[in-house]
Specification:
By secondary structure, the chain is an alpha/beta fold. The protein is 38% helix and 25% strand. It is globular and about 55 Å long.
């Protein structure tokens, strides 16, 4: 009954995929937009083909425009020769909708015989580093990533990224969560670069990150200039303690 209700509110619309056992990479908006930036770069570098979308009454009423053309806000791309499928979203998913959307999305990933599922998100800290934290749904995958990421000993993954991993675990699907460390909410291509390096290392995708790294340097320069401008106008405020955020 619960699944039927979810299917009424969430639909995956796609043409038949040519990949037999694809690696599925998922990126939704979150801290630092690490998932979005990583997935968009993969789509561009692999010249992936748009093959479908996810639609839901949970989504805000909007249309996404690229060069004057309308696109769905949650899209699916495929690179057949690499056996890679990417699900990317331009809209954040409300926590109350994450359960149903992750359930239908995982149903679909299971139906296309996904060999591995990677969920990319961000983690905000105050260390100033760009580490990549990882977790897996089974011991074999954990063994595969443990020397290439900072493995979570204790922690939580919030939002739809966490919901997807929970669904993978419940169904016995191979899933990996990769969280790029970032100092705050601003778009962080440098964190995305580090996540992509880990994906290259683990799954041998050979994604070129040089262009993304140059974009990171430009964004950081622009943000630094903006911060300097803000400093000249803002009034002193009481310092507040910051805690790590996941998702």
């Amino acid at each position: 009954m619960a699944l039927e209700q979810a299917e009424q509110f969430v639909k995956v619309i796609n043409e038949p995929l040519k990949s037999k056992n694809p690696l599925v990479i998922v990126g939704f908006p979150g801290i630092g937009l690490v998932g979005n930036i990583s997935c968009q770069h993969i789509i561009e570098e692999l010249k992936m083909k748009y093959v479908g979308s996810i639609d839901s009454r949970y989504f805000p009423p909007l249309a996404v425009l690229f060069n004057g053309l309308v696109y769905m806000p949650v899209r699916i791309y495929e690179a057949q020769e690499k056996e890679v499928v990417v699900v990317i979203s331009d809209i954040p998913i409300h926590p109350t909708a994450s359960y149903d959307i992750s359930k239908i999305l995982t149903d679909w990933m299971q139906s296309i015989n996904s060999k591995n599922i990677i969920s990319i998100a961000g983690i905000a800290t105050t260390t100033g580093e760009r580490r990549v934290f990882g977790g897996a749904t089974n011991p074999e995958l954990l063994e595969k990533i443990k020397n290439k990421t900072e493995v979570f000993q204790v922690g939580t993954i919030s939002g739809i990224s966490g919901s997807i991993m929970t669904e993978c675990y419940l169904r016995g699907l191979p899933g990996v969560s990769l969280l790029g460390e970032t100092p705050g909410p601003n778009p962080d291509p440098r964190a995305a670069v580090e996540v992509l390096k880990v994906i290259n290392n683990i799954f041998e995708l050979d994604i070129d990150t040089e262009k993304l790294l140059s974009q990171a340097e430009q964004i950081e320069l622009e943000l630094s200039k903006l911060a300097d401008q803000v400093k000249t106008t803002e009034t002193p405020s009481i310092p507040r303690k910051e805690f790590p955020m996941y998702g």
